Amino acid sequence: MQVQPLEDRYGRVASDLRVSLTDRCNLRCSYCMPAEGLDWLPGDEVLSDDEVVRLVRIGVERLGIKEIRFTGGEPLVRRGLVDIVRQVRALDPALELSITTNALGLARTAGALAEAGLNRINVSLDTVRADTFNTITRRDRLDDVVAGLAAAEAAGLGPIKVNAVLLRDVNDDQASELLRWCIDRGYELRFIEQMPLDAQHGWSRDGMITADEIFTRLERDFELTPAVEPRGSAPAELFLVDGGPATVGVIASVTRPFCGDCDRVRLTADGQVRNCLFARSESDLRAALRGGATDAELADRWVVAMRGKAAGHGIDDPTFLQPDRPMSAIGG
Ligand code: SAM
């Protein structure tokens, strides 16, 4: 089949698809969601398992998608996850398949996910102190996350990456402790700058912990040297810790944007294509799909949606407007 690349007006080609499987989550991280949760999408608006697999198949067969990351909300709360992974794996043995998860319940499902064809996982963990974990996530579940990480490793879902967000006066004093904990277990830690994507609109440029501050904190305890391998389209800048082989990554989406190298496209749980986390508009594949569109027509819509991708997310522009959907509803 002829592949139509998902190319935008600036020559960037998307080959990395982030698929949100649900907007629901079982944690309430303060920088993402209010304590009471959000108005979840009605069930009939969420793509069915078959609809997800069909759109992913179109992406893989017709649009040059090479890498798929399932996310949410929390992808592990999606009942059909293992079966979706199995069906997507059957599309192409060479696909890179991963999930981004908070790891709650992963201890039970890691083996089945690996057996279904998942390659690896990214786990979000901002602290290894139980009290700080409760403060950030508003849930007493640190032990479950730690058990989930261990189960993922035992199931061969490596290399395991851990994503952490540092919050001022909450866990910003724990950067080195978290890095040491990850290194001791062979997990690759990446710090993500906090972005204006929370439902409560509580983010501020002055309040966020910047990449420079993260380096200052880590360099009190570790020697960091830039990793030699080229970064390519990867969002994380990688550094060797104390000469390596352990590394630490910093994803400086706000202070050192990497939009020029972006190769990502997103599909929300309700079937909207988003060409950027910060896009102000979406393209409705679900309506077309349920209206009887052919694979070729859906692929054409997707190609058109990518043409409108902005050159950059513009967080630092005075005219910047936060997207209507929060991170949990887009798929982080
Ligand atoms: N529930 C899954 C998880 O915890 O990984 C997947 C969805 S979650 C929205 C994906 C990632 O987005 C997590 O690593 C989370 O820390 C991050 N995230 C959420 N809100 C964010 C924000 N405002 N700025 C930066 N990262 C954020």
Characterize the structure shown.
The protein has 332 residues and is an alpha/beta fold. 30% of the residues lie in helices and 17% in strands. It contains 10 helices and 14 strands. The strands form 2 sheets. The protein has a 12-stranded mixed sheet. Helix 3 packs parallel to helix 5. Bound molecules: S-adenosylmethionine. S-adenosylmethionine binds next to strand 5, strand 7 and helix 10. S-adenosylmethionine is lined by residues 25, 31-32, 71-72, 74, 100-102, 124, 163, 165, 192, 194-195, 197-198, 327-328, 332.
Total E-strand runs = 14
Outline type: globular
Content of β-strand: 15-25%
Give the topology string: H per helix, E per strand.
EEEHEHEHEHHEHEHEEEEEEHHH
- Neighbour order of strands in the largest sheet: 9-10-11-8-7-6-5-4-3-12-13-14
End-to-end Cα distance:
31 Å
User: Low-confidence stretches at least 5 residues in length (pLDDT < 50)?
Assistant: none
Continuous helix count: 10
Task: Tell me the helix content.
Answer: 25-40%
Task: Tell me the major beta sheet.
Answer: 12 strands, mixed
Overall mean confidence score, pLDDT? 96
Distinct ligand kinds: S-adenosylmethionine
Protein structure class: alpha/beta
Radius of gyration, whole Å: 19 Å
Short key terms for the protein model shown above:
binds S-adenosylmethionine; globular; alpha/beta; 332 residues; 30% helix; 12-stranded mixed β-sheet
